[in-house]
């Protein structure tokens, strides 16, 4: 699979090193790096802060760094960033103009249509894979928005400490025994 993906990307990339490669590169740069990157970033921030949750994300950072992020960070992540990204996305779409080369030669309409098609391919990945996750969990669709029981650090000891740090030691209904010991306990 990796060979097919690499070969396909190599063949597509060859178009950027031909005599008209700058035209292709300009088209890709305009459509594939602008609006689609903003859309994916907006979806990522919304999913992380609103679905995974600001509190849970802050708890994860506290567990990793040993201190809680300031309230201003939390507010920026949950409110300011999604609004700013949404404004930039709308601004980019509404004020977009057909691509030109060196601000002189306009691209043909089919090239602009191809650019929007390529941008939509990357943007459509978000709703497509969200739908796949929901379909896979059709018995309990809300489980698609919760971390699994094994979510956390890869090391078993840290994973148990992570689950214990979530509060009452219960994660998604499963009791986890912490590995932290008091000075009275003996290591086993």
TrEMBL record:
<dbReference type="InterPro" id="IPR037272">
    <property type="entry name" value="SNS_sf"/>
</dbReference>
<dbReference type="GO" id="GO:0005283">
    <property type="term" value="F:amino acid:sodium symporter activity"/>
</dbReference>
<keyword id="KW-1133">Transmembrane helix</keyword>
<dbReference type="GO" id="GO:0089718">
    <property type="term" value="P:amino acid import across plasma membrane"/>
</dbReference>
<dbReference type="GO" id="GO:0005886">
    <property type="term" value="C:plasma membrane"/>
</dbReference>
<feature type="transmembrane region" description="Helical">
    <location>
        <begin position="114"/>
        <end position="135"/>
    </location>
</feature>
<keyword id="KW-0812">Transmembrane</keyword>
<feature type="transmembrane region" description="Helical">
    <location>
        <begin position="75"/>
        <end position="94"/>
    </location>
</feature>
<feature type="transmembrane region" description="Helical">
    <location>
        <begin position="36"/>
        <end position="54"/>
    </location>
</feature>
<comment type="similarity">
    <text>Belongs to the sodium:neurotransmitter symporter (SNF) (TC 2.A.22) family.</text>
</comment>
<dbReference type="GO" id="GO:0015179">
    <property type="term" value="F:L-amino acid transmembrane transporter activity"/>
</dbReference>
<dbReference type="GO" id="GO:0015187">
    <property type="term" value="F:glycine transmembrane transporter activity"/>
</dbReference>
<dbReference type="Pfam" id="PF00209">
    <property type="entry name" value="SNF"/>
</dbReference>
<keyword id="KW-0813">Transport</keyword>
<dbReference type="InterPro" id="IPR000175">
    <property type="entry name" value="Na/ntran_symport"/>
</dbReference>
<keyword id="KW-0769">Symport</keyword>
<protein>
    <submittedName>
        <fullName>Putative sodium-neurotransmitter symporter</fullName>
    </submittedName>
</protein>
<keyword id="KW-0472">Membrane</keyword>
């Amino acid at each position: 699979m990796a060979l097919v993906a690499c070969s396909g990307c190599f063949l597509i990339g060859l178009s950027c090193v031909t005599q008209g490669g700058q035209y292709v590169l300009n088209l890709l740069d305009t459509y594939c790096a602008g609006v689609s990157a903003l859309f994916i970033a907006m979806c990522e921030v919304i999913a992380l802060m609103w679905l995974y949750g600001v509190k849970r994300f802050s708890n994860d950072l506290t567990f990793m760094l040993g201190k809680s992020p300031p309230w201003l960070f939390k507010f920026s992540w949950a409110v300011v960033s999604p609004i700013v990204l949404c404004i930039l996305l709308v601004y980019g779409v509404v004020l977009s103009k057909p691509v030109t080369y060196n601000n002189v030669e306009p691209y043909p309409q089919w090239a602009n249509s191809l650019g929007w098609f390529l941008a939509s391919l990357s943007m459509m990945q978000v709703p497509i894979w969200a739908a796949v996750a929901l379909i896979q969990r059709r018995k309990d669709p809300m489980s698609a928005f919760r971390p699994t029981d094994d979510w956390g650090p890869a090391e078993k000891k840290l994973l148990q400490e992570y689950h214990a740090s979530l509060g009452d030691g219960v994660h998604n209904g499963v009791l986890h025994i912490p590995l932290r010991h008091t000075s009275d306990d003996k290591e086993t």
